[in-house]
Amino acid sequence: MRTRPRTPDGPGDVLVLLRGANRHWSSPLGAILRELLSAAGGASDFLAQLQDQSGEAAAAPWLTVLGRAVARGEAAPEALHPRVATVAVVLLRNEFVVRGVPTAPDDVLVEITDEVYLPLVRRRGPVPG
């Protein structure tokens, strides 16, 4: 199993946030939320309300981590966008909601970080226009 140290900077920040989200989604409260999402299926009103509650507040810690990475020169400034910042946690949520796992193994969190999130934020550039 590949692991990273829990550091206050760098890729460790992403893993610290993902591990916290994994604990939340794996908790009894997370199990209830997973069941509600599964039961909601196409209930667009419920899903819209859930999205409203998880919007800016949910993106804030990710934007903070990404802002520090930009300041250190580890991420492109164009990556400072809520949709980009929250890609990792959305992929984690997919593990729970779509795949139905009770908890995501740490190697999945490392893979999300190393294979998707970091390459995305490092290579993000201006949209050709």
How are the secondary structure elements laid out?
Blueprint (H helix, E strand, L loop, with lengths): L10 H16 L1 H13 L3 H11 L1 H16 L10 H4 L1 H11 L8 H18 L6
Helix pairs in contact: 1-2, 1-6, 1-7, 6-7
Q: What's a quick, concise take on this entry?
A:
This protein has 129 residues and is mainly alpha-helical.
Describe the structure.
It is a single chain. Helix 1 (about 10-25) crosses helix 2 and helix 1 (about 10-25) packs parallel to helix 6. The chain starts with 10 loop residues before the first helix and ends in a 6-residue tail after the last helix. With about 130 residues, it is mostly helical. About 70% of the residues lie in helices and about 0% in strands. The protein has helices at about 10-25, 30-40, 45-55, 55-70, 80-85, 85-95, 105-125. It is built from seven helices and no strands.
